[in-house]
Specification:
The longest helix has 30 residues. Helix 1 packs across helix 3 and helix 2 runs parallel beside helix 4. 23% of the residues are buried. The chain is mainly α and 111 residues long. The chain has a domain of 52 residues.
């Protein structure tokens, strides 16, 4: 069952490589940018976990896509670059959400 799921994912990932990379890389960067920009706009901080979650999901799918290529034995600089971008965006999103919560906790409360 698991092997069939992995085989199906590998086949789908190879057949749709351009579409996967062309969709999830810009989405990941866009959601990461929205998460970071929310640090400067206090009224938008409530959206930070949502945008960070979407960016994390895009990064996870991109990592699974890269792992499918590693499973096949394809080792190119592009696979390492995509894995690094996914990891970097995950770290930036996690740090932005953490920093937003720290800033909210340290800011003076109204009322």
């Amino acid at each position: 069952m698991i092997e069939q799921l992995i085989s199906t994912w590998d086949t789908w990932s190879r057949d749709n490589c351009i579409a996967i990379c062309g969709t999830f890389v810009p989405l990941m960067f866009g959601f990461t940018g929205a998460t970071v920009l929310a640090l400067w706009f206090p009224s938008q901080r409530r959206w930070m976990p949502l945008t960070a979650g979407f960016a994390w999901g895009c990064g996870l799918l991109l990592c699974l896509h890269v792992l499918s290529w590693f499973h096949l034995g394809v080792v190119h600089p592009v696979t390492f670059i995509l894995a690094g971008l996914s990891l970097m965006c995950g770290i930036v999103n996690g740090g932005a959400v953490w920093l937003g919560r720290i800033r909210f906790a340290l800011s003076p409360q109204k009322g």
